[in-house]
Design brief:
Blueprint (H helix, E strand, L loop, with lengths): L1 H4 L7 H24 L2 H21 L4
């Protein structure tokens, strides 16, 4: 189909397939990372924005 839009795209089939495979490998890697992440790490990261605001409110610029 790409060759109908861009006539010089006949040699790009390899790159199209490679980009699709790389996309799915990265997607599966992220899913595996999420599934193997520790609950304590998830809790720590989810509370991080709240911890920063609490530190700033008690600091009052006295660095």
């Amino acid at each position: 189909m790409l060759s109908r839009i861009y006539p010089g795209a006949d040699g790009l089939a390899f790159w199209q397939g490679l980009s699709l495979v790389l996309f799915f490998l990265v997607f599966l890697g992220v899913i595996m990372m999420i599934l193997t992440m520790r609950k304590s790490h998830i809790d720590k990261m989810s509370n991080l924005p709240l911890d920063i605001e609490a530190d700033q409110s008690t600091n009052h610029g006295d660095k």
